Amino acid sequence: MTDTNGANDFIHVFEPGTDPARPPLLLLHGTGGDERDLLSLGRTVAPGASLLSPRGKVLEGAAPRFFRRLAEGVFDEADLRRRTDELADFVLKARERYGLPAPIALGFSNGANIAAALLLQRPEILAGAALLRAMKPFARAPRADLAGKPVLLLSGALDPIIPAANAEELAGQLTAGGAVVEHRVLPAGHGLGQADLALLGDWLARI
Ligand code: MLT
């Protein structure tokens, strides 16, 4: 079901799950994607889970994103903070509307970056997160209580957008908040491959 109004006015898709043991997934697409992009990935790695998939509201040219950037990898942090709250409030309203427990975020690239921002700025919103090709969203991370929250961080050793040290620092910020971080660096670039899917499916089945 695609919805263009209600739930804080994010265009989004909600697919009800069939397996109540699976936590819902909050799917967050990359730059230029939309609310349909990660649905089949979500169905593949978490069969039976409810899927909540909003479209980012910021347009870079015609490309939807979840927050503004000043250049590739250089973020407008004031906009990021505002957009993070907006997305957090959307999740709260959608949980009420669809009767959902706190979701696990599954984000790719720009979607992974706002998922990391949600963890750091509004830690109560997510039960955990899988961050695919994420970088540090904030130069200085807010102090967040992430005690026991599972986080999977999948980075690409050949990623031309994200320096290895940046992803390491993000892992450190999340670990400092108490998250249980699994950080794997794959022999890959910015795009996803079979190894990502396998690790993701395995992690989701374990948490
Ligand atoms: C971002 O802007 O969030 C990152 O540079 C990743 C991207 O979307 O290209």
From TrEMBL:
Pfam families for the chain: Abhydrolase_1 (PF00561)
Occurrences of domain AB hydrolase-1 (ranges): 83-140
Keyword Cell division: no
Entry-linked InterPro entries: AB_hydrolase_1, AB_hydrolase_fold
GO function term, MF aspect, one: hydrolase activity
Alphabetical keyword list: Hydrolase
Protein name: Hydrolase
Organism: Bosea thiooxidans
